[in-house]
Design brief:
Elements: H1 11-16, E1 25-26, E2 40-41, E3 51-61, E4 71-82, E5 87-98, H2 107-113, H3 117-120, H4 127-133, E6 139-142, H5 145-155, E7 164-166, H6 183-188, E8 192-193, H7 199-212, H8 214-224, E9 228-233, H9 241-246, E10 250-252, E11 257-262, H10 265-275, E12 285-289
Parallel strand pairs: 1-8, 3-6, 6-7
Antiparallel strand pairs: 2-5, 3-4, 4-5, 9-11, 9-12, 10-11
Length: about 300
C-alpha cells in the first residue's frame, strides 16, 4: 500500500469489521486552495458578540536555543473571535514566509520540517507585513508558547509586550478526554490529520482543534485574562524538593527552578517568608504573571 493513501482495496474488509478500523480526514482548512478565499467563516456571528482578534503563531527554527538559533519559517494566522461567547468566528488574514539564517540548516531540522537551504536562500521576513498582521495588539496563540515566544521576541523586540496564550499548557486536555498534549495526537484522536512541522499548517491545525473544542477555547481565554503572582524558589537546594512538592510548588525545567502561583501579592509574600524556614530564600522573587509576561525568556 502506498504510504499515506487510503486503502481502497480493503473496503470490503473494512465494511465487514468496521469496529477494527478508524478513519482520519484531512483538516478542511489545510486543503489546497481553501485559504485563497479569505475570510474563511468558522462560526456564525451574533449581534451581541464582543469581537476581538487573535493571531495564531508558529515558528520553525534552526534549533532550540533562542540566543543562537534562528527562525527559518514564520506563520501568523489572524482570526476574529467572540470574547463573550469564547468561540472562533473567522480566519481573516495570514502571513507565511521563510528567512535565510545565513548558515546551513542542520540536517536534523531539514529531516523534521522538510525545509532545505534552497527553500530559504535569499528569503527575508517582511517586517511591515508582520506589523500589519499584529495591528491592534491581538492575542498571540501558540501551541508551545514557551518555545515560540522567546524566539519571536528576540527577532521582533518591538512586539515583546503583546499578550500570549499557550494552547498546549493552558488547556486542561485531560479534562477534555485527551491523554496527551502533542498537537498531532490531539488532532488525530479526534479523527483528523494534517502535514505536521510546517508552521502555516500547524497554525491551521490549532485553529481547527479549538474550533472543534469550544470548551478548550474557553479554557484558553480564561487563562489568558487571569492575573496572578508567581513565587520563584530560586536557590532551593535539592534536599527540600519533597517539601516544596508537598506545598504545591512545581518545577520549571527551562529555568531549573521551583515555583508556585498565588492569586494575590500578599499570599505570595506570606509564602516567601515560609521558605526561609527551609533554606536561604534571599534570592527568591515574586513576579506578576499575566498574558503579557508569561512565557517570556527569563
Amino acid at each position: 500500500m502506498q504510504s499515506g493513501r487510503f486503502p481502497l482495496e480493503r473496503i470490503d474488509e473494512i465494511m465487514k469489521r468496521p469496529e477494527d478500523f478508524r478513519l482520519l480526514e484531512r483538516i478542511p482548512l489545510t486543503r489546497p486552495g481553501l485559504m485563497d478565499k479569505l475570510p474563511v467563516k468558522l462560526t456564525d456571528p451574533w449581534e451581541d458578540d464582543e469581537l476581538k482578534n487573535a493571531v495564531f503563531i508558529d515558528t520553525e527554527t534552526t534549533g532550540m536555543d533562542p540566543s543562537s538559533d534562528r527562525i527559518i519559517e514564520l506563520s501568523l494566522v489572524r482570526c476574529t473571535y467572540s470574547f463573550n461567547r469564547r468561540v472562533l468566528l473567522s480566519i481573516d488574514a495570514y502571513y507565511d514566509e521563510f528567512e535565510d539564517p545565513g548558515r546551513p540548516i542542520p540536517p536534523g531540522i531539514t529531516e523534521l520540517t522538510g525545509i532545505t537551504d534552497e527553500m530559504v536562500r535569499g528569503h527575508h521576513f517582511d517586517n511591515d507585513e508582520v506589523a500589519r498582521i499584529l495591528a491592534g495588539r491581538p492575542l498571540l496563540i501558540a501551541h508551545n508558547a514557551r518555545f515560540d515566544r522567546p524566539m519571536f521576541d528576540l527577532r521582533w523586540p518591538l512586539f515583546n509586550n503583546l499578550a500570549w496564550a499557550c494552547s498546549m499548557t493552558e488547556i486542561d486536555w485531560d479534562a477534555l478526554g485527551s491523554g496527551g498534549r502533542k498537537l498531532e495526537y490531539l488532532v488525530q484522536s479526534r479523527g483528523w490529520f494534517y502535514q505536521a512541522h510546517r508552521a502555516y499548517i500547524d497554525c491551521l491545525a490549532v485553529i481547527w482543534l479549538l474550533h472543534l473544542e469550544p470548551d478548550a477555547m474557553q479554557m484558553l481565554l480564561d487563562s489568558a485574562i487571569k492575573r496572578d503572582y508567581r513565587l520563584w524558589a530560586v536557590g532551593a537546594p535539592f534536599a527540600v524538593k519533597d517539601e516544596l512538592k508537598n506545598q504545591g510548588y512545581r518545577f520549571d525545567g527551562a529555568r531549573r527552578t521551583w515555583y508556585k502561583n498565588f492569586p494575590d501579592k500578599t499570599s505570595a509574600e506570606t509564602a516567601l517568608q515560609k521558605l526561609f524556614a527551609l533554606f536561604d530564600a534571599s534570592r527568591c522573587r515574586i513576579e506578576l504573571s499575566n498574558a503579557a509576561t508569561r512565557f517570556k525568556l527569563s
